[in-house]
UniProtKB/TrEMBL annotation:
<feature type="domain" description="Acyl-CoA dehydrogenase/oxidase N-terminal">
    <location>
        <begin position="24"/>
        <end position="136"/>
    </location>
</feature>
<feature type="domain" description="Acyl-CoA dehydrogenase/oxidase C-terminal">
    <location>
        <begin position="243"/>
        <end position="389"/>
    </location>
</feature>
<dbReference type="InterPro" id="IPR052033">
    <property type="entry name" value="Glutaryl-CoA_DH_mitochondrial"/>
</dbReference>
<dbReference type="GO" id="GO:0050660">
    <property type="term" value="F:flavin adenine dinucleotide binding"/>
</dbReference>
<dbReference type="InterPro" id="IPR006091">
    <property type="entry name" value="Acyl-CoA_Oxase/DH_mid-dom"/>
</dbReference>
<dbReference type="InterPro" id="IPR013786">
    <property type="entry name" value="AcylCoA_DH/ox_N"/>
</dbReference>
<dbReference type="GO" id="GO:0046949">
    <property type="term" value="P:fatty-acyl-CoA biosynthetic process"/>
</dbReference>
<feature type="domain" description="Acyl-CoA oxidase/dehydrogenase middle">
    <location>
        <begin position="140"/>
        <end position="230"/>
    </location>
</feature>
<dbReference type="GO" id="GO:0000062">
    <property type="term" value="F:fatty-acyl-CoA binding"/>
</dbReference>
<dbReference type="InterPro" id="IPR037069">
    <property type="entry name" value="AcylCoA_DH/ox_N_sf"/>
</dbReference>
<dbReference type="GO" id="GO:0033539">
    <property type="term" value="P:fatty acid beta-oxidation using acyl-CoA dehydrogenase"/>
</dbReference>
<dbReference type="GO" id="GO:0004361">
    <property type="term" value="F:glutaryl-CoA dehydrogenase activity"/>
</dbReference>
<dbReference type="Pfam" id="PF00441">
    <property type="entry name" value="Acyl-CoA_dh_1"/>
</dbReference>
<dbReference type="InterPro" id="IPR036250">
    <property type="entry name" value="AcylCo_DH-like_C"/>
</dbReference>
<comment type="similarity">
    <text>Belongs to the acyl-CoA dehydrogenase family.</text>
</comment>
<dbReference type="Pfam" id="PF02771">
    <property type="entry name" value="Acyl-CoA_dh_N"/>
</dbReference>
<dbReference type="Pfam" id="PF02770">
    <property type="entry name" value="Acyl-CoA_dh_M"/>
</dbReference>
């Protein structure tokens, strides 16, 4: 660099210049989703969270479909065919608004739609995916059971053949979108191994009671799925996979979105703390002028932008077809854990105001407690990495 060259100014919102890694199309996707969230979610999210409801879920789904955010990394059937990095940027912006909104999109696109797109028949794809991409049909993903979360191989939901039909019985728990879904992708034991089924939610014997009394993900529809002698035709089974590799590959796709999304919640909390530190005065000056507060802000910025860099790196690997599941575990474990710590530190800067819904910090912190658990607990991702590092399986 010549002596006359001028360095770009330091940007507190992008201290590492990560935006320089993004293409114009990436920035356009990010800005579109950010603008939508600012207009349609942020003015209402505190009220939705406090009431424990997402009252406009179907309307929001259609709007998300109209901007191409549903199944956006899939191709065909009305899907946007976006890159993995673009999908990640969308997840970050959605979770900066609220984890519940990002969960709506993740379950729709990375779990329910992805399962049908990857393992479904052409007839199933034509039947379900266009409406799901448009947000006209909401999907859910039934894997977790009341007694089987981290060990899905032990699931008790069972599908048995009856002539040319299947009869499905069982229960699934903690299912995002369940009570508003038009189709449920349900995984069940069969005589031939674990299979996936595209279940119309108006099928006799299917019900999805909503789970209430949550202190996390309150602005999100969470349900139990109950299958009581649900009779399905042969063409309801997803023909492209048998065994746990089916649902686990869907989970890996969803976990990738969480790697980005958690940094959205962290960014929102960091920005709230930074703005507060610049304006809140104690002892005659803004608290951002005190060394301890600056140390907190510096450490928060460090972990936030390291996490975004990690997400970006994993996105490029996914786009190149070289992303391994263990690398997704690396990202999910690190970024969610650091995001929670950023939210907790932000809360200390805001003091008592940090627990108020006038600020986003406590809402993000409590939401992230759920994100820390779903799509693989901390312990499960530690064991995935431990096995990859040592070659020894410690799951049992």
């Amino acid at each position: 660099m010549s002596a006359s060259s001028k360095l770009p100014p330091f940007d507190p919102a992008d201290p590492l210049g990560i935006d320089d890694l993004l293409e114009p199309e990436d920035l356009a996707v990010r800005d579109t989703v950010r603008s939508w969230a600012a207009d349609r979610v942020l003015p209402h999210i505190a009220e939705w969270y406090e009431s424990g409801e997402l009252p406009a879920v179907r309307e929001l789904a259609r709007e998300l479909g109209s901007i191409g955010a549903l199944g956006m990394s899939l191709t065909g059937y009305g899907c946007a065919g976006a890159t993995a990095v673009q999908y990640g940027l969308a997840c970050l912006e959605l979770e900066a608004a609220d984890s519940g909104i990002r969960s709506l999109v993740s379950v729709q696109g990375s779990l329910a739609m992805y399962a049908i797109w990857k393992f479904g028949s052409e007839e199933q794809k034509q039947r379900w995916l266009p409406g799901m991409a448009a947000g006209e049909t909401i999907g859910c993903f039934g894997l977790t059971e009341p007694d089987h979360g981290s060990d899905p191989a032990g699931m008790r939901t069972y599908a048995k053949r009856d002539g040319s039909d299947w009869v499905l019985n069982g229960r699934k728990m903690w299912i995002t979108n369940g009570s508003v879904a038009g189709v449920a992708v349900v995984w069940a034991q069969t005589d031939d191994g674990i299979r996936g089924f595209a279940v119309p939610t108006d099928a006799p014997g299917f019900s999805a009671p909503e789970i209430r009394h949550k202190w996390s993900l309150r602005a999100s529809v969470t349900s139990e799925l109950v299958m009581d002698e649900v009779r399905l035709p042969q063409d309801a089974v997803l023909p492209g996979v048998t065994g746990l590799k089916g649902p686990l590959s869907c989970l890996s796709h969803a976990r990738y979105g969480i790697v980005w999304g958690a940094m959205g919640a962290a960014r929102s909390s960091f920005e709230a703390a930074l703005d507060y530190a610049r304006t809140r005065e104690q002892f005659g000056k803004p608290i951002g002028g005190f060394q301890l507060t600056q140390a907190k802000l510096a450490d928060m910025a460090l972990e936030l932008h390291k996490g975004i860099l990690l997400a970006h790196h994993l996105g490029r690997r996914m786009d190149a077809g070289t992303l391994r599941p263990e690398q997704v575990s690396f990202g999910k474990l690190n970024n969610v854990r650091e995001a929670i710590e950023i939210c907790r530190t932000a809360r200390t800067i805001l003091g008592a105001n940090g627990i108020s819904l006038e600020y986003p910090v406590m809402r993000h912190a409590t939401n992230l407690e759920s994100v820390l658990t779903y799509e693989g607990t901390v312990e499960m991702h530690q064991l995935v990495l431990g096995k990859a590092l040592t070659g020894l399986d410690a799951f049992r």
